[in-house]
Amino acid sequence: MTTLDTLPNTAPQTGSLPPAADQALPQVKPLYIGNVKVDPPILQAPMAGFTNFAYRQIVRQFGGSGLLATEMVSARSFVWLAEHEAESPERLWGVKEEARPLAVQMWDNDPDTLARVGERLANEYQVSVVDLNFGCPVKDLTEKAHSGSYLLKFPDRVGAIIERVVKACAPTPVTAKIRLGCSHASINACEIARVVEAAGAAALTVHGRVASDFFRGSADWEKISEIKQHLKHIPLIGNGDLDSAAKVVEAFRRYHVDGVMIARASLGRPWLFAQCAAALRGDPIPPEPTLDEQRDWMLRHYELVCERFGEERGTLLMRKFACNYAQGKAGARHFRGAVGNVNTRFEFLAVVANHFPKQDNPQLFQPHDAAEPCEETCG
Ligand SMILES: Cc1cc2nc3c(=O)[nH]c(=O)nc-3n(C[C@H](O)[C@H](O)[C@H](O)COP(=O)(O)O)c2cc1C
Prior knowledge:
Elements: E1 31-33, E2 36-38, E3 42-44, H1 53-62, E4 68-74, H2 75-83, E5 102-107, H3 111-123, E6 129-134, H4 139-144, H5 155-169, E7 174-179, H6 189-198, E8 203-207, H7 221-227, E9 236-239, H8 245-255, E10 259-262, H9 272-281, H10 291-326, H11 332-339, H12 345-355
Parallel strand pairs: 3-10, 4-5, 5-6, 6-7, 7-8, 8-9, 9-10
Antiparallel strand pairs: 1-2
Helix pairs in contact: 1-10, 2-3, 3-5, 5-6, 8-9, 10-11, 10-12, 11-12
Flavin mononucleotide binds at residues 45-50, 71-72, 105, 133, 135-136, 177, 207, 239-242, 262-265, 373, 377-379.
């Protein structure tokens, strides 16, 4: 299996100059999802519980991502809320007002329910792209709701869903996000890719793991690359383990994807997209912001969360977002321990002032500071 970690690293590093002529950059063009131009072809991945309006605002301010996405929305809950004249799903916070392009992702297994919600997303919310989740491996979605990656076992069902949703959303493009298969014994991404395109989807994103892996092991980019020959017209977007500009350049150079999608690595480093975009252009890669600047971005993130949810709930929500900003830095564990107990704005600001990693206070880097998502996470 070829993963991005096993490749010789010939691509540019943070802060470095563009590569020499003999390591010419791949020719990367904007990609089109229907008539939506994704430029640069670097997509921000949907991440449940994280990629809300506040996070997306921060990503937009840095730039570098050609298409942003919401967290996945349950189509069934959306319909239920509408029938009970309740508010729209919380995960659609900010979507109507937000800049475009923006994709909203939804999940279910019922073509009619998905078509109903897709139609509202396209017409009432005027989103740029409607994305369908066929990749989530979490048991609540697969075993209980027979949705997400569970549907990869049923290519006909995947096709039926896409056909209905495409009709309901037209002319808004509909895309699909999948894993390689449900398990190593049942990898069927090439077959699913053909079904997805034949049913009228406008792009396919593939996370290069199988569902039973959750996040274990490495994404298999060779397998992602094989899918390309099964698509006639629509773009292939590769996803999995991209955490540096160098790896993004390698993904385009070696695996001939039309676009890449980045998830976990961008959570505490929303400037990563801008670094990747610069590398693809052949420009010098912007350096990591200083720790003080990173802290200030985190505080901006906090204000956006509080504006929406109020101070009490906003502070509780911010606990996990704040941990992402500290991840991988000296002292991150200590900060995590402290911020995990804050309940008020005063406490949050005090913990940030006293414990957010500082340049002049280096402690030993703990490799386990780099947290792994648990099996309850989606995707
Ligand atoms: C916390 C978390 C939440 C996620 N939520 C979603 C989601 O709502 N929809 C989805 O398609 N994938 C979801 N994913 C999967 C990511 O979009 C992505 O496919 C996966 O993390 C691999 O990319 P990466 O290696 O860049 O993180 C989630 C992943 C994480 C870590």
